Q: What sequence folds into this?
C-alpha cells in the first residue's frame, strides 16, 4: 500500500434487487502501520437518513469518526466524521 491507506482487494455483487448489495474486501493501513483486512456488505443507494444528537447540558453534538467503504466506492477517500445514519 502506497500513500493511500485503503486498497480495494475484491468486490462481488450479492444482490441486484431494489438496492444493489455488494460484498467488498479491502485492506486498511492503521495508524501504527499494520495492515488490516476487512470485508463489508454495502448497499449501493442514495437514500438515507441521519439524526443530529444534541446534549443540552453540555451544549455538544455526538459525531463519530470512521472509515466508510461505501463513500470510498463513490469516489471519496472514505474517512468520515458523521452523525448517526442509516438507509431509509
A:
Amino acid at each position: 500500500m502506497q500513500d493511500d491507506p485503503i486498497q480495494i482487494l475484491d468486490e462481488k455483487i450479492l444482490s441486484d434487487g431494489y438496492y444493489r448489495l455488494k460484498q467488498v474486501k479491502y485492506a486498511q493501513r492503521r495508524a501504527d502501520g499494520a495492515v488490516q483486512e476487512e470485508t463489508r456488505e454495502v448497499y449501493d443507494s442514495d437514500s438515507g437518513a441521519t439524526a443530529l444528537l444534541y446534549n443540552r447540558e453540555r451544549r455538544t453534538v455526538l459525531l463519530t469518526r470512521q472509515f466508510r467503504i461505501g463513500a470510498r466506492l463513490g469516489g471519496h477517500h472514505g474517512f468520515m466524521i458523521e452523525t448517526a445514519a442509516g438507509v431509509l
